[in-house]
Write a structure and sequence with these properties.
Blueprint (H helix, E strand, L loop, with lengths): L10 H15 L3 E5 L4 E4 L10 H9 L3 E3 L11 E8 L2 E9 L2 H44 L4 H10 L6 E7 L21 E3 L2 E7 L13 E4 L6 H15 L16 H8 L3 H8 L7 H12 L3 H8 L3 H15 L6 H16 L7
Antiparallel strand pairs: 1-2, 1-5, 3-4, 4-5, 6-8, 6-9, 7-8
Helix pairs in contact: 1-3, 6-11, 7-11, 8-9, 9-10
Length: about 350
């Protein structure tokens, strides 16, 4: 419901308030809608009938106090109070009794209705947004929905390009960040699918507020059209199938997405064969290789590993000796990196 729409008071919610409060205050209570029709009452026989006094309240938009009973008109002493939701008149609360006694009770009932209405509206909004998010993410990950359909769906839900797709595998499924609500035009809620949590957001928005150091988390590059977004979704879904290949937050500098995706796409029976060339490397040597190829210089790599440059040179020479690979040859180094990633996929090494 947009802010400009007339708020509608649900009869079930109104009756819930009446059933809760009327027995406690021992007064007769009616709640009327914006047309003066009784939608909730402590006298069930009156529900669905017109409450004449509330019509005057709605017309004047003010409290009407009745001090004398009028049997011919069917009225009793009491108070009829305008009921406002989102600063709009949407109904009336009526309580029988001496006005000076029951007016505070009518105020309390109106406040209760307002609070419950706001709570119900927020819950309904969140539930709808969660369902929308699941539909959008499911369509992206399914991989067979046409780009034009994806684009129209995103436009309908107010998410305009460019977009970014987030992937998160938290250490705990009870992480409170998973409850982050959707923000209209900014991001969807988190959706759990394929063993991970996904969220689509407008590019440039905030990522997950505080990804833990050991959580596996990725955010895709900006996608300016639905075709790009579908391609990103396919890549991330491929990686989720091999979660060991996903980098932990804070370890992405030495991670190579192209190699990770290539290894993730390799048939399971091929991984052991692919990993053979790196089988002789220990954890330290494998990490050294990945740090060196990711760094812009040997000095930067040595600093990242917290070792002297000469020590780094010696490690690389040793890696070359035990693997028979000439590290300075790009093609051979790349094959060795694939082998290291294959061992990571097999959970034999834990580097990022």
């Amino acid at each position: 419901m947009s802010e400009k729409e007339q708020p509608r008071l649900a009869s079930a919610l109104a009756q819930k308030v009446v059933d809760t409060i009327a027995p406690t205050i021992n007064r007769h209570v009616n709640i009327m809608n914006a047309h003066g029709i009784i939608i909730a009452s402590s006298d069930a026989s009156r529900v669905g009938t017109l409450h004449e006094g509330s019509v005057q309240v709605i017309r004047r938009n003010e409290i009407i106090r009745v001090t004398q009973a009028d049997e011919s008109a069917g009225t009793q002493p009491g108070v009829n109070l305008p009921l406002r939701l989102n600063d709009q008149l949407c109904g009336v609360v009526g309580v029988t009794g001496a006005p000076h006694e029951v007016e505070p009770l009518a105020d309390l009932i109106a406040l209760t209705v307002q609070l419950l209405f706001a709570q119900e509206r927020e819950h309904s909004h969140s539930a709808r947004k969660a369902a929308e998010a699941r539909d959008i993410i499911s369509a992206l990950l399914a991989g067979h929905v046409a780009a034009e359909v994806i684009e129209r769906t995103l436009e309908t839900h107010g998410l305009r390009a460019p977009w970014q797709l987030e992937l998160w595998i938290p250490r705990s499924e009870q992480d409170p960040e998973l409850e982050q609500p959707a923000l209209d035009g900014i991001r969807t809620a988190w959706v759990g699918l394929f063993g991970a949590h996904w969220r689509l957001r407008k590019a440039g928005g905030e990522a997950v507020d505080a990804p833990k150091a050991n959580d596996r988390y990725l955010v895709g590059p900006e996608a300016s059209d639905a075709g790009e977004l579908l391609a990103q979704a396919e890549v991330l879904r491929t990686l989720v199938a091999r979660p060991a290949l996903l980098p932990q937050h804070g370890h992405q500098a030495i991670w190579n997405q192209d190699i990770a995706v290539a290894v993730a796409r390799a048939p399971a029976r091929s991984l052991k064969y692919l990993a053979l060339k790196a089988q002789v490397l220990n954890q330290e040597q494998a990490k050294t290789l990945l740090v060196v190829v990711a760094a812009s210089s040997m000095s930067e790599a040595a600093e990242s590993l917290h070792i002297h440059r000469n020590t780094l040179v010696q490690r690389l020479e040793r890696i070359g000796q035990v693997t028979g690979v000439e590290i300075r040859q790009a093609a051979e180094s790349l094959r060795l990196q694939h082998a290291v990633y294959a061992r990571i996929a097999l959970d034999e090494l834990r580097i990022f």
